[in-house]
Amino acid sequence: MRPRRDRHRISLTLALATEVALLAPAAARAADPAPALAIDLGGAQLDLVLVKEGRFRQGSPPAEAGRGDDEAPREVTLSRGFYLGKVPVTVGQFKRFVEQTGYRTEAEVGASGGFGFDGKGLSQRKEFTWRAPGFPQTDQHPVTLVTFKDAGEFARWLTQRTGRAFDLPTEAQWEYAHRAGTQTRFYAGNDDAAAAAIGWFKGNAGSGTRPVGQKQPNAFGLHDMSGNVYEWCRDLYAPYAPGPAVDPEQTSAPGGDKPRRVLRGGSWLKDAKHLRAAARYRNDPGSRNADNGFRVVAALEASAPAAAAPSPAAPAGSARAPRSSSGSTAATVAFVGGGLVVASAVIGLIGVLVHRATRRKPMPGAPPGVTFRPQGDGFWLHAPPHLHGSVLHYRCLVKGAMRRTSVPIEASPRGQFVYTGGVPSAVEAEQLGAAAWAAAPSAAPPAAHAAAPRAAWGGQRSRERISSAPDVAVVAPFRGYPSAY
């Protein structure tokens, strides 16, 4: 009996050894992903580079030349590796996305277009879109005039197409990948001359973007991390939290500040100091500028089967429900549609009742000299120089909905365009930081302006008083803001 038992044990051992041998390659692949990833977009290819997990010092030392106040150093650990686009998303790659989905960017949908290059600088015109940024481009140039939403929709399309999670990188992922193990101002060195070796900027680009991949890559094999176009990150802009951080992502804006998304890398329109590894920038997520682009990040492994490539979207107004010989489809659609209408009406009635129960008068007064002018999907804000750098709290009526928010007042000879997503029918200033009132050479404190008319334009004001959150504390804006458009 014993020899038979021994043979049985040997058989089990061989079977287990065979199973382990078969499983070992798969485990090895999971632990050590391929150094590169290529995604077929149907006529174009998207190449991504493996960036392994690790630790680095984010930000810059106090003595770094060109340093911003918002670059406080901190130790950051990234616990998971990821794939990152080898270059910014190109015109050719974005074109495949548009052709296969019928997507229209926010600059194309909006009435005012985007901010393209007019020969002297960026100006807003209806004809400026990713297809026509104001300078010639080929399929190998980085796509521009894309908003944060446009970039996110491209990543969502890739996720559906591949079954692998795609997104925009966090600010920490972006800087870690940019540095590629370095701690110098640029990944090629500390001098401004190093910027010319790795990127396109105001000093060497001319009037527009350049084809991607022409400059020296970093140690990870990534091109154009400095210059050419600014790149959207997932984070909302805010000061870094103090102390070490693990996989940080900023998901809220500082108190009283308008939410703005982080942009990184510098651009063809900016000076060399903006190409530094630690340099930060930010803008409204609806901004569409001819030096803003993006690159994508991808998970190490696919999590779902790839979906079939979608057909181009049908023209607006041409979509129809599938026909049914029994008429059940039409009846179902009609029933559901009617239910939605009733539900919307009930929700709207509840909203009005709650609104009327909680309404309060807006804060009195408005700073003298502040004016608004509607245009397209936003309005132009004009303010005297002594108010630049202050936070203006305002309310506006867009598509029947009253919004209450704030915006830092920026210095601009043409005025400052504030994106609202639609044509505002009324805008009213409510409050301004106390520091700015005090700085005004002839301005009285806010209480003295209680009876002054609010700055407003266009049409009749809504007779409804808006419900509002508790009054925003009057504080100086975050001092570390980089300049914006």
UniProtKB/TrEMBL annotation:
Q: What is this protein called?
A: Sulfatase-modifying factor enzyme-like domain-containing protein
Which PANTHER family does the entry mention? FORMYLGLYCINE-GENERATING ENZYME, SULFATASE MODIFYING FACTOR 1, 2
**Boundaries of every Sulfatase-modifying factor enzyme-like domain copy:** 47-297
Q: Which region ranges are annotated with the description Disordered?
A: 244-266, 307-326
One example of the protein's molecular function in GO is: formylglycine-generating oxidase activity
UniProt KW keywords: Membrane, Signal, Transmembrane, Transmembrane helix
Q: Which Gene3D superfamilies match?
A: paralog of FGE (formylglycine-generating enzyme) (3.90.1580.10)
Give the signal peptide as a residue range, or say none if absent: 1-30
Q: Which residues cross the membrane?
A: 330-354
Tree of life domain: Bacteria
Species annotation: Sorangium cellulosum So0157-2
